[in-house]
Every structure is written in structure tokens, then in C-alpha cells.
Specification:
The chain is 73% helix and 0% strand. Helix 4 packs antiparallel against helix 5. It has a domain of 143 residues. By secondary structure, the chain is mostly helical.
Length: 223
Amino acid sequence: MLALEITGIVIGVPVIVAVLLYVTQHLVPHTTRRQHNDVAGFVYAVLGVLFTVMLGFVVVDEWQSLETIKTNTFDEANELGTLFWNARALPPATGRALEQTTRDYANVVINTEWSVMNDGESSPQATNIVYTMRDEINALPVDTLKEQTLYQYSLHAVNDLAAARRQRIDESGERVPDIRDRPTEPPVQRHGRRHPGCLPHLPQPAPRTAMIVWCVLIASVPA
């Protein structure tokens, strides 16, 4: 739908301008139009400057938004990698469950959540996996100094992962405001659940390079 609107604007505006110019040249005499050349030139110059400034702001805003999303994605992937390797450092009886949960989270984010983010949504399955990871970490033994260290680092990593995911979802819904945008319902409660972002569009392509690299990395590790 958005693509059709953009196409309509790109094609429709030049056509309308061309029609108006044609009508003006045939209905308004050249001698009459020539009297306003100085004023028209000044007006067009001002409009050109305003358009350039607005275009610059739009480009900078979109670029910064994309860079922020990319940073949050890499932070999320780094924390997930930390959890994976912490789980590998634990005995198989206690660490393999957490190891598999980190794999499940990466697969769900790449294969499920990224596609629904186009509609401003998030994956409930990914949310549940984050809760599962936190529960598995809280159930880790802390009898030795090594286990206590792994527990503390893992708990810190899962909290940072959850925070990075929330920021990724919230910021992925940001876009340049449309003149048709108006306040409707609060974004926190929509259809009986928390909505991940105020606006429904996601800049594409979304940066999921970090998740893909991380999955390749853990795929190379023997089970």
C-alpha cells in the first residue's frame, strides 16, 4: 500500500505540474507573466532552499534511525553470543539447555520476528524464549566460584539482551511523520497487548547481519 502511494506521488505530481504549466502558458499572456519574473524567481529560490533543508533533515533522520537499529541489533547478538559461550562453559547437564535456548532465540528472531516487524509487531515466541533463558540462568548452580561468575555474567547478558531487543523493536517502528498522522490510541495498549512501536513501518532492509553471523558461528560448533 505504501509503495503504491509513493508511486502515485512520484508519477502524479510531475503530471499535475506539467498540466498546470501548459494551462497557464495558454491562458495567461506572456506579457502579463513577464511582469512577475523578479518576484517569481525570488519565491522559487526560497522554496528551493526550504526543500533542500527539509530533504537534508529527512535523510539525516532516516540515516541515524538505521544506524541506531543496527547498533541495537549487534548489541543484542553480542549478548546472545555471550550467553551461548557461557552455557558451553557449564557442565553438559546444566548448560546444554541454555545453549539450545540461545539457538532457538536466534532462529526465531531471524525467521519469524524480522518479518512481522514490517507490520510493527513482535514475536511472542521470542519473548517467551527470553523468559525461558532468564529462568534457566536463575536455576544455575552457584556452588563454586566459577559457577557464581558464570551466573552473574549470564544474568547481566540476558538483561542486556532483553533491553537491546526492546530498543530494536521500538526504534524499528520509527519513520518520518506523515502529514496524515494523528494521535489515535496509546501505543502501549493496542488490541489488549503491548505494541512494540508507535508507527507501523520498518525501514528496509533491516540490519540482521549480526544475527546471521552469530548463527553461522554457533553452527560451526559441534553439539
